[in-house]
Design brief:
It is found in: Membrane. Belongs to the UPF0220 family. It is a multi-pass membrane protein. It is a single chain. The chain has four helices and no strands. The protein has 134 residues and is mostly helical. α1 packs antiparallel against α4 and α2 runs antiparallel to α3.
Length: 134
């Protein structure tokens, strides 16, 4: 069994574990929080999950990388939109981390840190799954 076959066999499982760790960190932060977390704090993780689903809807084999042919512009536009959603969700989670560290009456810094880690792990799991094989 060569490395590509091993990656094709273990990649989806690894992606699932990384995805689960991301959401587990977020749920841990919500449960351990001493204040009520508003729904707005949930949105970066939800949109990161949607973005990971969006770029996993495109198969790597369907993308034409030729600069001289028109190729599948709809797929490229879909991927671009998915990456914009993913980076906006990551930026929003960093914004909540900064807000949580400044405001003393709001959620703790751990809640903001868990939100950033959740987005990183969820988006990382989506990329692991997207590259796992074919």
């Amino acid at each position: 069994m060569d490395l590509l076959e091993l990656w094709a066999a273990l990649g989806p499982g690894l992606a699932g574990v990384v995805f689960g760790v991301g959401w587990w960190l977020w749920v841990d932060a919500i449960v351990c929080s001493s204040v009520k977390i508003s729904f707005v704090h949930y949105l970066p993780g939800i949109f990161a999950t949607i973005a990971a689903l969006m770029f996993n809807c495109v198969r790597k084999a369907d993308i034409d990388y030729s600069p001289y042919e028109e190729g599948e512009w709809r797929l490229k536009l879909w991927l671009f939109f998915a990456y914009v959603v993913s980076f906006v969700s990551l930026a929003a989670s960093v914004g909540f981390l900064v807000q949580d560290s400044i405001v003393k009456t709001g959620p703790s810094v751990w809640t903001g840190t868990a939100g950033v880690l959740q987005c990183v792990f969820v988006l990382g799991s989506g990329l692991i799954y997207w590259t796992h094989g074919e």
